[in-house]
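Why run this: before we spend reagent on co-expression, it is cheaper to look at a predicted model of the complex and decide which construct boundaries make sense. The entries below are exactly what would go into the expression plan.
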Amino acid sequence: SKIEPATKAVPALPDAQTVTDVKHYTDRLFSFRMTRPASMRFRSGEFVMIGLMGDPHPETGKVKPLLRAYSIASPSWDEELEFYSIKVPDGPLTSKLQHIKVGDDVIMRPKPVGTLVHDALLPGKRIWFFATGTGFAPFASLLREPQTYEDYDEIIITHTCREVGELTYGRDLIESLKTDELLNEVIGEGFWKKIKYYPTTTREQSPKMGRITDLMKSGEAFEDLGVPPLNPDNDRAMICGNMAFNLELKDMFEDYGLVEGANSNPQHYVVEKAFLD
Ligand code: A2P
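The model came back. Tokens follow.
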């Protein structure tokens, strides 16, 4: 009788979650939502490892999960999880991840960690969120976190991107807060008036051009926002962007007299690197 070729065992995806929504913003950016394990707890601003199974090894046929750190963009109270991602054409993970559809499986190790959390900051009056590109993701979580508005009188979010289309995800998110029933009810009608949004672009014309770092060094950003430069008495800050951006802001903060904090040692500011494939 005919012998069937041995089929390779396809491992069931470990820690699989199901995609519930996908939105594409530009040829470089997309966001998606997926189911959340009932037992999973996290603090707004944390990240998890997510990914897909990689290609089979050319000789052994073995497949291994391909995982990267992704900030959770949804708040801790949300029943689903949201992520905001870059698409890198030859990126090992994002070249595949950008094609996910509703109903697909995504692997997630449900062990959230990270330093962009309220626990890592001392009490203050004003909190600054500084993002470039997909570094907006943890702030999409924190901007929907009631504690952000309970702990601070003023929330300033700066977002520097190359092009105007890269601001859409953040702008839409901030706009959506105005009609967010849960937040308006929990924190109070009009809570979103505490937010000052400061988007800038560097390679395409927009109302505010330039890197946020340069705009702060010249004083222009503070003038536009109507606030004084950061000081350790009143201001707290979280940074999430590309490496050069993070380092430049850290240098500036040291000049302002701000001290970097951690979960075990809350201080004036915290930093995390935005995901790059
Ligand atoms: P620029 O266009 O002047 O490089 P990227 O997509 O390369 O991660 O960059 C995202 C945004 O961050 C871009 O607008 C980029 O500006 C800006 N950027 C890059 N490096 C710095 C830095 N050291 N300080 C401030 N902004 C930066």
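The domain at 16-113 is CATH 2.40.30.10 (Elongation Factor Tu (Ef-tu); domain 3). The pocket of adenosine-2'-5'-diphosphate is lined by residues 132-133, 160-162, 202-203, 211, 213, 242, 244-245, 248 (CB under 6 Å). Bring this page to Monday's planning discussion.
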